[in-house]
Amino acid sequence: MRWRLIRARGLAFLLVLAAVISTASSASAVTTVESQVCDDFIAPTIVAPSDGTQTTENTAMIEGTGEPGKTVAVMKGGANQAVATVASDGSFGFTVTLADGDNTFIARETNECDTVKDSLPITIHADLPVPPVDEGEQPTEESPIIEQPGQLPTDRPNAGVVGRPFVPTPATPGFEKPKISAANDKLTVYNDTLLIEGRAQPGSLVTVYVNDQSQAQLFSSAKGTFQLRIVLKEGKNTIKVRSTLGKKSAVSDEVTVTYIRRVSATLTRPLAASQIITTAVTAGVAVTGSAVAAIGVNAGIHKFGGRFKFWWRK
Amino acid sequence: MKRLLLVGAALLAIAFVAVPAAYADTTDSTVYGSGNYGNCDYGACTITLSSGGATTLNVAPTPTGKCTVQSDTASVLTDNTVGYSLTMTTSTTNNAMTGASGSIAAASGTAASPVTLGMNKWGYRVDSLAGFGAGPTSSQNNGSVPSVSFAGVPASNQSPTKVASTSGPANPAATTTVWYGLCADSSVPSGGYSVTVTYTAVTN
Q1: pTM assigned to the model
Q2: Could you say which of A3, A29, A284, B92 has the lowest number of CB atoms within 10 Å?
Q3: In angstroms, rounded to a whole number, what is the distance separating the alpha carbons of residues A201 and A240?
Q4: Which residues of B touch A112 (CB under 8 A)?
């Protein structure tokens, strides 16, 4: 209980007795405890070129394997050189530019839990003529592309860009329009990975869109070429690239590639042991027991009633 | 008649007012005296509470399991002379972390009797509170099972668990670090899981 003795305006002394029901004050706050549980994944591997490769070219095609569906970045000196989505067969590949001397690359995969896994590094030694290139500068982390004095360096390939929708922008007048050269329009393929090649403004950042969704980013070489492996979805795939250099950009014409998935026969009903008996290719010896799988072997023994018949595939 | 109305108004001044209704000074009156018979100073029986808003326990499980431990901070500010109590429950009657792919159950321990965090469980702990032990707890990502013990956060239809209390004012604000831990093995489907925890601070 609280009390106060007050003098109210216009009144004589007035005792105001304020009886207070002493209910407690309370306050609340909420916090969300959240967790992203991520599957473990295999670290990427660079399978080509091999460590210690020497070249006189100023580009190299990095080929590797990784976790299908994950985004993989190839890095040099801590800076991304290219990013792409690993294909369903676990492959990835794209060209990277080389500087004169040793160029050490790693492939890096990151999952939704920010778990990072790196490949073993590979070093490519490039013996480039002097001056290394005459078409333009190379986009290395030591010498970012400055198109004009005062202009910001070109952005680097960024894994966060993968999966973003294509946003049309007007082409910059006079800026070289990129072109997809290796994949023919209206092409039909039976693999979900496709190696595409193209041309773009030398040193520009090339973003590859498949079905209006970005799938990879890499630099165009000093000669204005790029090459990478993309992942196709079943059916029609529209492919285009955007080339960006500073504030200038241009988009290629679309190329349409249709991917038809091969259907392979699958044994859905296990054969009984009395129907097919498999064996290592050891003619004349009947294997008894419960072996049931016959797919993939080149020889076997069929049992017809009480007799065995040996067969082999030529 | 006017005098009668004034007398009536004076009698009505004996009012019953719930805390923290303020007895604000006005220019119309002069205070000749005041006192405190209870827990709050005049006009001071308020309490405020804030928390971090989100705690993330990402984990990339392996067959044998991985654990992540992170903390949240609850801050209470009150001038109440006899302090406050801070409790918490989950916001629903289900104290499991739920997601599209499944759920992760709360740890079985209590504040009085916490347990080592088991696989596919989540829990909380407050260093030096009740049976938790001194710790100190440290944050970790995708580590081994923590050596410190954890308890399950009670569901909203259970008795709230006390995580902090004082017997005096908390001004400046008193902070309580609440640690959350989660362990998961490969049997937990990948995806997002979450649970909302409600802290409640009440003046004593």
Answers
A1: 0.57
A2: A284
A3: 15
A4: 58
